[in-house]
Amino acid sequence: MAHELEIEEEYAGGEPEAIGIDESNRWIERIFKAFPAFRERNFSLYFWGQFVSLIGTWLQTVAQGWLVLEITHSAYWVGVVSALGSLPILFFALFGGVIVDRFSRKKILYVTQILSLIFALVLGLLALFGHATLFAISVLAFLLGAVNALDVPARHAFIAEMMGKKNLASAIALHSAAFNGSRIIGPAIAGILIALIGTGGTFLVNALSFIAVIVSLALIDVSVRRRASAHPHPIAAIREGLSYAFSRAMIRMFLIGAGVVSIFGWSYLSILPVVTEQVFHKRAAELGYLHTAAGIGAVTSVIVISIFMRRFGPRPFVIGGTFLLGAGLLGLSYAPTLPWGLAAMFVTGFSLILAFSVINSTIQSHIEDTVRGRVMSIYVLMWRGTAPIGSFLMGYMAEHFGAGWAIRAGSLVVLVAACAFFYCRAIIPLRPHPNQ
C-alpha cells in the first residue's frame, strides 16, 4: 500500500524561523491540494525518477532525428526511422498487455529500463566513434520500440497499481506533465549538447538518465500480485481484452479517435526536423525551441485540467482539445516565421494533452484492474502503435509536397475527428467519474 507523505504542522510559535516554516508548509499544502497524487510517497518517487529519465529520452529523440537527417539529408528517412521506433508496438503491444496483467509490473519496468539503458549506450558509442550507420540506427530504434511495447502499458498499469482508485486522474495528469515537462527541458538541452558534445555524447547522457528511474523503482514499496493463473492462454487473454474494450461504446470511440489523431496529428513530430530546416531555415537549437514550446503548452494544460476537470468533466476537454489540436497544426503549417511556429507549437502541445490526458484517465477510471494491462495495451497500440503509419505518410508527403502541406493535410483529418467527437458527445461523460 502506498505511503502518504505527511506534513508537520506544529512549530514553535512566534519565532521568525517558525513563520518561514509555516509559509513554506502552506505552499506545500497548496501543491498537494492542486496535485493530490503527490501525497503518495510511491508516486512522488516514481514521478521524479521518470522525469529525469524522460528528459534523457527527449535528448535521444531530438539527437536521433538530427543524426538521421545529417546522414541522409532526407525527410523520408527521418520519417522511416521514427516509424521503426513505433512499429514494434503495432505488433507486440497486445502481447505486452497480457504480460502486464500476469506478472509484477514493477519487475517488468526494471527489465525495460535496463534494456533501454543498454540500447542508448550502444547507440551513443557507435555515434561517438563514427560507426552510426543508417542501418545501425534503424535496428536500435526498432529494438527500443520492442521494449516500449511492454514498457508503456506497464507504466500505465503501474500508476493505477500504486494509486488504487484514489487520485488516479491526478496521477495520470502528472505523468503527462512529467512527459511534457521533460519535453520543455530535454529538447532545449539537446540542442546545446549536440553542438557541444555531438549526437554520440547526447545518447550517452540519455543512457545515464535511466539510472534515476531504476533507483526510484528500488525505493517504491508496492505489494506484488501475480496474475499467471487468470489467463493461461495468451491468445484467449488478448481476445478477452479486445472484447472488453470494444464492447463499451465510450472506450471504443476513444480508442478509434486515438488511432486517427496519432496517424494524422501526433505524427507531425516525426518531420519536425524537416520543418525546422525547410520552413524556418534553422538548425538543431531552433528545433529544440519548437519542442520546448510544445512542452510548455502541455504543462499548461495539466494545470488547466487540475483546476477545471472536476467542475466541467471530460466532455469539453476531449472535444475542445481535439479542435484546438487541428487548429494548432493548421497554424504551424502556415507559420511564416519561427515565432509564429513557436506559438503554434504551444497550441498543439496544450491541446494534445488537454484531450488525451483526459481520455486516458477516463478510460482507466472505467475499467477493472484484472484487464487494465490489456486495455491499456490496446490504447497504446492505437495511440503509439499506429504512429509508424503516420510517420511514413508524413515523411512521404514532406518529401514530395513539402513539410507544410504534410502537416496541413493531417490537421484537416484531426478537425474531422473533433467533429466526430462532438457528434458522439452523448457517450462522453459530462461529469467526472468519482475516481477522477
Q: What would the keywords be for this entry?
A:
single chain, 80% helix, 15 helices, disordered N terminus, 436 residues, mainly alpha, Growth Hormone, Chain: A
In terms of topology, how is this protein built?
Layout (H helix, E strand, L loop, with lengths): L15 H19 L6 H32 L2 H28 L2 H24 L5 H30 L4 H52 L14 H13 L2 H16 L7 H8 L4 H29 L1 H21 L3 H28 L6 H14 L1 H15 L1 H21 L13
Helix pairs in contact: 2-3, 2-5, 2-6, 3-5, 3-7, 3-13, 3-14, 4-5, 4-6, 5-13, 6-10, 6-12, 8-13, 8-14, 8-15, 10-12, 11-12, 11-15, 14-15
Can you characterise this structure?
- The protein is globular, with a radius of gyration of 21 Å.
- Residues 1-13 have low confidence and may be disordered.
- It has 15 helices and no strands.
- It has a single domain (36-219, 233-427), classed as Growth Hormone, Chain: A (Up-down Bundle).
- It is an all-alpha fold.
> What fold name stands as the CATH topology?
Growth Hormone, Chain: A
What value does the Rg take, in angstroms? 21 Å
Overall average pLDDT: 81
Return the domain count: 1
- Estimated helix fraction: over 70%
Taking the alpha carbons of the first and last residues, their distance comes to: 20 Å
Please state roughly what percent of the residues sit in beta strands, choosing from under 5%, 5-15%, 15-25%, 25-35%, 35-45% or over 45%.
under 5%
Please provide the count of β strands.
0
Q: SSE string, helix = H, strand = E? A: HHHHHHHHHHHHHHH
Biggest pleated sheet: none
The CATH architecture can be given as Up-down Bundle
Unreliable spans are 1-13
In CATH terms, the superfamily is: MFS general substrate transporter like domains
Helix run count: 15
CATH class, anyone?
Answer: Mainly Alpha
Instruction: Estimate the global geometry from the Cα principal axes.
Output: globular
Category from helices, strands and their pairing: mainly alpha
